[in-house]
Amino acid sequence: MRQADIIAKDIENRIVTGELDHGVRLDEVSIAERHAVSRTPVREALQLLTASGMVEHLPRRGVFVRQPDLVELLQMFETMAEWEGVAGRLAAMRIDGEGLARLMAADTACAAAAAAGDADRYYSENAVFHAVIYAATANAFLEGELLRLHHRLRPYRRSQLLMRGRMEQSLSEHRAIAAALRDGDANGAAAALRAHVTVQSERIHLMLGRTKAAS
Amino acid sequence: MRQADIIAKDIENRIVTGELDHGVRLDEVSIAERHAVSRTPVREALQLLTASGMVEHLPRRGVFVRQPDLVELLQMFETMAEWEGVAGRLAAMRIDGEGLARLMAADTACAAAAAAGDADRYYSENAVFHAVIYAATANAFLEGELLRLHHRLRPYRRSQLLMRGRMEQSLSEHRAIAAALRDGDANGAAAALRAHVTVQSERIHLMLGRTKAAS
DNA sequence: GGTTTGCACCTTGTATACAATATGATTGAC
DNA sequence: GTCAATCATATTGTATACAAGGTGCAAACC
User: Fold this and answer.
1) CB-based contact (8 Å) between B79 and chain A?
2) Between chains, do B139 and A85 touch, taking CB under 8 Å as contact?
3) Residues 6+ apart with CB under 8 A from A124
4) CATH code of domain B3-65
C-alpha cells in the first residue's frame, strides 16, 4: 500500500474520533514529520481526503478539517434515507432467490449479534444486510454511491447503536424490510427503508442536541 | 487556478470528446511535456480525475481512461432518474414562492431557446431548470450530489438534444413537472421527473446501439 | 521448440530543492 | 492613536533528482 493511503487512513481516523476537530489546519510539514516521510505523499493523502469531502482545500491557504455540523448531518441522513428508499424500490422489483437467501442470512447474523448484546458485531452485520439490498438493485453504479455514503456516515451511525433498545428496534425494522422485499412490494420496501434510516436521523438529532447542551 | 486543475480539465475534455478512448494509458511524462510542466501537477490532476471516476488508477501500473460502457451508462441514468425523483418529492413539499418564480423563469428561458432551435442554449437553460429543483429540496448535501452526477452525465445527455423533436418533448415534460411542484403533488413530481430522465436514458440506448451497429 | 529465469529498461512512488503567494507584524504617516 | 502600506516569514505550489517496483525481451535450459 502506498504511503499516501496509509496517511489518509490515519488522518481519517483522527478526524472521526474527534482528535482533529472542525477548522483545524492540517500542516503538511508536521504530518510529514509525524509519519517520517516527505511532503509529497502527504499532499497526495490530503487530496484523497479532499475528494471524499472530509477536509476542505483552500488554494494557497492549506487544508482544513471539515466536520459536518448538525444541519449538514441531518441533510446527509435525509439523503441516505431517500437513497435507501430508492434501493428498496428497485431491489423489491429485482431481487432473486439467492439475494433473498443472503438477506435472510444477514438478518440471522444481526439477530445473533443483538442477542449477544455485541454492538460492534451488530454494526458490521447490519452493514452486510444493507449491502445485500444495495447489490439487489442490480445497478452497480447506484450500489457504489450507496456504499460511499454509508461509509461516510459510519461514525455517526455507530455511536447511536449504544442507545438502549436500538438494536432490537433496528432488528424488527429489518424484518419489515425483508418481508416487503420478499413480497415484491416496491412502495412498501421504499417506505420501510426510508423510515429505518430516518429513525437513526432523529436519534442523532437528540444525541447531538444533548451533547451540545451539555458542553 | 492551479496547474493541476487546468490539466485535469484538459484531460477531462479529451475524454468526453472521445479523443482519449477507454483503456488508453495516461503517461505522466507525455502529459507533462504537453503542458510544459513537471510531473508533480500532472500527478495531482490524475488524482482529481481518479476521484471523479473518469480514470482508473492501478498502483505501480499507471492510470487508464475509463469510459463507461452502455450498461454502466444506463445504470448511471437510472440512478439519475431515481435521484431526480427524490428531489422532486422533496421539492414539492418545500418549494416556496421565490423558488417557483425561478422555476418559471427557467422554463421561459428554455422555451425561448427551443423556439430559436438553439440546442446549446436549451441545454444550459435546462440545466438551470433542474438546478432550481435541486435547490428547492432545501438539502444542500443532496443538491451537491445531484449537481455532481448531472455534470458527469453531461456529455451523454448533450448529444441527444440534437435529435429531432427532443427539445419540444422535453419542454412539455418540464411543464408537467412544474405543475406538480406548484400543486405540492410530491408523488406526481417524483414520477414526472423520473420519467423525464428515463426518456433520455432510452434515447441514449437507441443512439449507442445504432452507433455500435454502424461501426 | 517451448518454457522459465534473469536482466535491462521504463514507469511510478518518494525525497528534496526552488519559486511564488498569502499572512502578520512593524513602521510610517495622518 | 489608528490606519495603511510594505516587508519578512512561513507555507503552499512546482520542479527535479533519486529509489523501487513492474514489464518485456532475450538467452539458456529442459
Assistant:
1) yes
2) no
3) none
4) 1.10.10.10
Question: How is residue A3 written as a grid cell?
Answer: 504511503
Give the cell for residue B94. Answer: 418545500
Q: Structural domain boundaries of chain B?
A: 3-65, 70-214
Tens place of pLDDT per residue across chain B (215 aa): 689 999 999 999 999 898 999 999 999 999 999 999 999 999 999 999 999 999 999 988 899 999 998 999 999 999 999 999 999 999 999 999 999 999 999 999 999 999 998 988 999 999 999 999 999 999 999 999 999 999 999 888 877 766 778 888 999 999 999 999 999 999 999 999 999 999 888 887 777 665 554 44
Asked if A63 contacts A56 with a C-beta cutoff of 8 angstroms, the reply is: yes
pTM over 0.85: yes
Q: How far is the CA of B205 from the C1' of D14 (A)?
A: 45
Closest nucleotide relative to residue A58's CA, C1' based:
D12
Q: Do A142 and B78 touch (CB under 8 A)?
A: yes
Instruction: Report which of A154, A141, A86, A49 is spatially closest to residue B148, judged by C-alpha positions.
Output: A141
Record: contact B75-A47, CB cut-off 8 A: no
Query: Which nucleotides of strand C are protein-proximal, with an atom < 7 A from a CB?
Result: 11-17, 21-23
For chain A, the DSSP string reads: --HHHHHHHHHHHHHHTTSS-TT-EE-HHHHHHHHTS-HHHHHHHHHHHHHHTSEEEETTTEEEE----HHHHHHHHHHHHHHHHHHHHHHHHH--HHHHHHHHHHHHHHHHHHHHT-HHHHHHHHHHHHHHHHHHT--HHHHHHHHHHHHHHHHHHHHGGGSTTHHHHHHHHHHHHHHHHHTT-HHHHHHHHHHHHHHHHHHHHHHHHHHHHH-
CATH class, domain B70-214, is mainly alpha
